[in-house]
Structure formats: C-alpha cells, structure tokens
Amino acid sequence: MNLNEIYGKLDNYDGKLGALYSKEETRFILWAPLAQDVKLALYNRDGLDFESNIQKTVSMRFEEDDGIWHVTIKGDLSGIYYNYLVTNDDVESEVVDPYAKAVGVNGKRAMVVDLEATNPEGWKDDVKPVLKDATDSVIYEIHVRDFSINENSGVKDKYKGKYSGVAERNTRIPGTDIKTGLDYVISLGITHVHLLPIEDYITVDESEPEKKQYNWGYDPQNFNVPEGSYSSDPFRAEKRIKEVKEMVLKLHESGIRVVMDVVYNHTYKSKDSNLNLAVPNYYYRQNQDGSFSNGSACGNEIASERKMVRKFIVDSLVYWAKEYHIDGFRFDLMGVLDIDTLKEVRCELDKIDKSIILYGEGWNGGSSTLAYDYGCFKSNTTKFGNMQIGSFSDDIRDGIKGHVFNKYEKGFISGKENLEDTIKFAVTASVQHEDINYSNVIYSDGPWANEPYQVINYTSAHDNNTLFDKLLLTNEGKSLEEIAKLNKLSAAIIFTCQGIPFFQSGEEFMRTKKDESGNIVENSYNSSDYVNSLDWERMNENKDMVDYYKGLIKLRKTHKLFHMNSADDIRKNLVFLKKGINFQNNNVVAYIINNFNIDDIYNKVLIIYNANEFEIKVNVEEADWSLIVNGDKSGCEELVHIDSNEIKVPAHCCYVLSK
Fold it and tell me: SS3 letters for 616-654?
C-alpha cells in the first residue's frame, strides 16, 4: 500500500485514538494504515529509570477498514510507560504515541495516566471568569520561565521559572511591599494571560533541571502534553499535568482566563518525527521532488488539510479545552494551516464553550505548497464569515512603531509621515469604513476583517525588539522622558482602537532585552535569563508608566464605546475628523465615537492622537468636554473640564475626552 491509497479510503477513521484508560483495562489504538506491523512496548513505572529496557511487547491487531492497530491490556496500567514499535518499509521504529496524554522526561516515552487522579482540589468546581463578548478581552503575553525566574520576583525558589511560579500569590519584591507575579497581573486588570508554548517541546533538556536552559518553545514534540521543564518534577509524568491544572485554577480564581500559544504548523523533527515514523509522509506537505515543503521555515509544515491531520489538530485542541479548561488558543504561523481546519476547530470548540477565543499569526514563514487562497492568512480573514477567529494586525504594529525587521525605521508615533490612514485602519478594527483611504494603508489594500473580534491590535510581542528597545533604536538622542511619552502614545492608541488589544508582559514598564555587554537582543528565543527574565525592579522604577496602562485598561473595560461588538456599530458610531476642517496638521488622527444604542454611560467620546513635536489644535462642533486621558494620566476620572470647542493637544500625546 502507498500513500495515495490512504486518501479518502483509510483516512476516515473518526473514533478515539491513544491510550484509553480505565482501572479495569487500557485500550491502545494507533492509526498507522501503511504499517506492516505494530507492537505495544511496555516499560516499568519508574520515571527516573528513563533509559530502562522494554519489559514486554504485545502484538497489536490491524483493522484494515479503519487503518488502526489496537490491543487491550487488562488491569490498572496507570503509571506504566509505553511506546509503539512500528514497522514501515521493513524498518522498525520506536514511536511515542501521537495521542499521548502523559510522557516521561524529554518526551521520549508515553505514559498511561489516570487523568482523574491529576485533578487538584476544587478542579471540578472551577468557574471561568465571565467574558460576555470576545471584544471585552485584554490579552497579556507571558513566558512561564520569564515570569518568575528573576531573583526580584519574590517567588519561592522552588517555584521560580515553573508553572507554580505563575500561580503563586502574595509575592513581593524582596524587602518591599511591592506586588510582583500574579498579584501584580491581577492589579493590571487584564482579562487573559497568553502563555507562550507549554505543549511539550524538544529544545530544553528536562533531565537536567538545575542547568540554566532557555527556549521560547516553538519546537513541538508531543502536542497533548505539558512541557516538563516548567514542572517541579519532570521525571514524574503526572506532576506536570497537575501543576498546569493548578495554575489554570489559580488564574481562574483570580479573575484571569488562560490562552495557550499552540504550534500546529510544524514539528521540530521531520523525517524521524513521531508522526512521520507512524505514517511516513502523510502528516507533512511535500514538494514535487518529495522533499518536505517548508512554509514554517523550520524544516517542514503540517498538512492540516488532510483528514487525519485535521482530526489530530481538532482532537488536540478539544482535549486541552476540556481537560485543562483552557480559554483560548493562539496559532503560531496560522497561514500554514488551512481555512477549513480552523473553521472546524471553531465549530467544535463552540460546542464546549463559545467564549473560547481564537487568534493567530496571519502569515507563514516561507514558501508553501498550500495555495494562498486556502491558508489562514490575514487577508483571508473575511472567509471566516462572522466566526471569532482573529489575526494579529501587522498594519498597526508597524504603523505605530516602524517596521519590525528594519530596526531603525520610525513609525507614526516617532513622526514618520503618511501613516494617518494606517492608524485610522486600526482604529476601525480593519473593517470597512468610508473615512479611510486604503491606498495609504501600509500592508493592506482594503478591509481584511468582517468583525472587530477578528482583529488583534498590538505593538509588541515576544518576537523582535521590545517596544522600548525599538523606540530607543528609532529615536537616537531622545531622553528617556521623551521615549516614555512615545510609549504612552503607543499604548493609548492600542487601547482606544476597536478590536482586541494584546501586549507583551513588561511593555507597561518599558521592558528591555539587553545582554551582559549592554547590547540589545532582538531575537531572544534561546537567550539567557539575564536577557529574557522580567525585571520586577524595572516595574517599580517605571510605576508612572504602569499606572498609565492600568488607567487605559480600566477605561476600555468600563466603556463599551472603546470595544464595540460589530462592524455595523463601528460604522454607525465612529466618525473621523478631517484635516483642513477640524485641524491643519499632518501626523494627527482624531475621531468621535457617538453612542447610538451602545451600552455605555458616555454619550460620546473624542479621541485625538498627536504624533508631532509640537502642540496642535483641533476644532469640534461642541464644547463642554471632560478630559479623561492626557499624556500624563489615564482612567475614567475627569482630569480637567474643557469648556471650549477648540482642543489644544500637546506634542506626542493622546487626548481622550468624554461627555
């Protein structure tokens, strides 16, 4: 049998796969329709003895109509390690179960697990924080190790860099009463914590937990198992499962939802990956010459459009949502995945919880054999109809601060010309609006979203320079005080745009990534803790900036006018002021949001972004405004009352006024 004989014949299996456990028996099922033979290899229960020999092999039975191999073993097998011995083309390979729910150290052996026994106290009573609308989301990106590994995190030593470090409460900068960790994040007011990959990845050696190692985690190995290096004991397969659940439970109790960063576009290994050893070439796209297509720029790309690959991705996401109570998923290089797969993901997750949010990178990493029209690219977002599947807006990211791959290029806030329509495009959440000249938008020639909940607005994430470092590079010679003004203007734009705001942890205290020599590190995916860890002292030093972010978040969450639910509401209520009529200068964006049937106590708000080095004047028809955001403070309280219909806005400043 060859690969072509599988399509439409042996790739229709819709049953369960993996080790199906009960206390009475465990049924092992592997989909491997090309295999000549499959055996179950059983090891012992000792996770520390991770190089032990196979204790027993058991032949598995092949069901030709389904392409599956299966065997049932009587007795309570919880804690038993196992793999499959799969023979393809007369070569036997040891394969970790693609559907493994638990693995030993470094993910080299699967383990049968009683998932009920991994539930922490209170798990069954876990209640997700309320999220009425997707547009109510405010997303905060963290890396598990970054979050607590610094000595000044105040997190207990045994929890530093671990899942438990994210969950620990009552942490303070040592010797002070200044909040750090989870207590600090609660005080920010965000709704979602976005965790960089916590699926088991391959580029940190879990067998040496005391060794200082670092990686972002975009090197997937076992898709349905938590990463072991963030566990207090990577040798005990059940430990990491329980600790992730404890972390999610504590975040939920703290009013914070949890988003997982997932990497279904590729695997770290290619020819010798578990997926390829199980079913050669099926899980990956190939070029005409048989080589791996490389749309991920990581050596291969997953063929999501194939039935059993799609099933694998959908099953995996449903499992995380059900078993771990995950509230959202961010897709790495989403453009590598096909549209129909993401639609099916959305439909299946809706059956569990319609408030689960989905978003991703609407691009790929290189040339792909998947036709562009079928990929989940930003420009194809309209093909999702009204589904909540969002894409990051690189328009607003680079429009605000400058191109991420040209470190010296300026953006709107630093005075670059002709970016007003790009900013306006972000203000309207990239939906159709008559006041925008799309020919002036930097990366899009028209609206790419149908609804505001399909757009993620941001200026910084783990990739590329931090916002603060980018502003340093593009504004050489400016003082830290001047850089801070630009940072505040950037934040004010993001949090007053329609859509969903997202920001990197530490952006709010001007996070920097410099090595021991003082050099700025742009791509810190495997840099040291010195470069990557959150410096909580910096949070204390930049309290004014932190308070500014807190005020913007509070304003946004309190007032629906800043995050309307539909494109129709945006078009009905949001009107841009015009240069030559309301103001005379370039590098200015100003608009009014009226309140026609929006649930908000404000009748209207006026927002002005001035990216010039000088004060500007904006004239509006009405007077009698309450200024609630300026260049120094933000929030819901009136800072000053303005009786005039002429508004004077200082240099590098955002004004938000209400009535």
Answer: EEEECCCCCEEEEECCCCCCCCCCEEECCCEEEECCCEE
Return d(Cα 337, Cα 305) in angstroms, integer: 8
Catalytic pick from 168, 361, 421, 469?
361
Length of the chain: 659
pLDDT score recorded for residue 5: 77
What pLDDT was estimated at residue 2?
Answer: 73
| Domain 137-392+451-460+502-537, second-level architecture | Alpha-Beta Barrel (3.20)
Each residue's pLDDT tens digit, 187-209: 999 999 999 999 999 999 999 98
Strand partners, 456: 392, 500
From-to residues of CATH 3.20.20.80 in the chain: 137-392+451-460+502-537
User: Residue 10: what pLDDT?
Assistant: 82
Instruction: Catalytic residue, from 141, 200, 327, 332: name it.
Output: 332
pTM of the shown model: 0.97
Q: For residue 526, what are its two tokens?
A: 């495997």
User: In the chain, where does the domain assigned CATH 2.60.40.10 lie?
Assistant: 3-118
Contact predicate 85/57, CB 8 Å: yes
Q: What are phi and psi of 135, to 5 degrees?
A: -70, -10
Q: What is the pLDDT of residue 144?
A: 98
First to last CA, the chain: 72
The sign of the torsion formed by the CA atoms of 321, 323, 324, 330 equals negative
Pairwise CA distance, residues 431 & 502, whole Å: 18
Which residues does 570 contact at the CB level (< 8 Å), separation at least 6? 428, 429, 431, 433, 452, 498, 564
Q: Which two tokens stand for residue 511?
A: 């996070």
Residues near 64 by beta carbon (within 8 Å), at least 6 away in sequence? none
Q: Residue 447's closest CA among 464, 433, 465, 463?
A: 433
Angle (deg, nearest 10), helices 467-474 and 394-401? 40
Residues of the chain with pLDDT under 50: none
What is the structure's pLDDT at 1?
Answer: 66
CA distance 349 to 331: 15
Per-residue buried b or exposed e for 544-579, using 16+ beta carbons within 10 Å of the residue's own CB: ebbebbbbbbbbbbebbbbbbbbbebbbebbebbee
Residue 611 is predicted with a pLDDT of 98
Specify whether 125 is catalytic.
no
CA distance linking residue 548 with residue 250, whole number of Å: 27
CA 194 from chain centre, in angstroms, equals 5
Note the CATH architecture for domain 574-658: Sandwich (2.60)
CATH of domain 3-118: 2.60.40.10
Closest CA to 521 of 509, 512, 510: 512
Q: Is 361 a catalytic residue?
A: yes
44, with CB counted inside 10 A (0-12, 13-18, 19+), is middle
Give pLDDT, residue 428. Answer: 98
Q: Which value, in Å, is the radius of gyration of the alpha carbons in the chain? A: 26
Beta strands in 263-372 (DSSP E): 328-331, 357-360
CATH 2.60.40.1180 boundaries in the chain: 574-658
Q: Are 243 and 253 in contact (CB under 8 A)?
A: no
Q: How far is CA 487 from CA 464, 508, 575, 630, in A?
A: 17, 9, 26, 13
What local confidence, expressed as pLDDT, does residue 8 receive? 80
Instruction: List pLDDT tens digits, range 382-438.
Output: 999 999 999 999 999 999 999 999 999 999 999 999 999 999 999 999 999 999 999
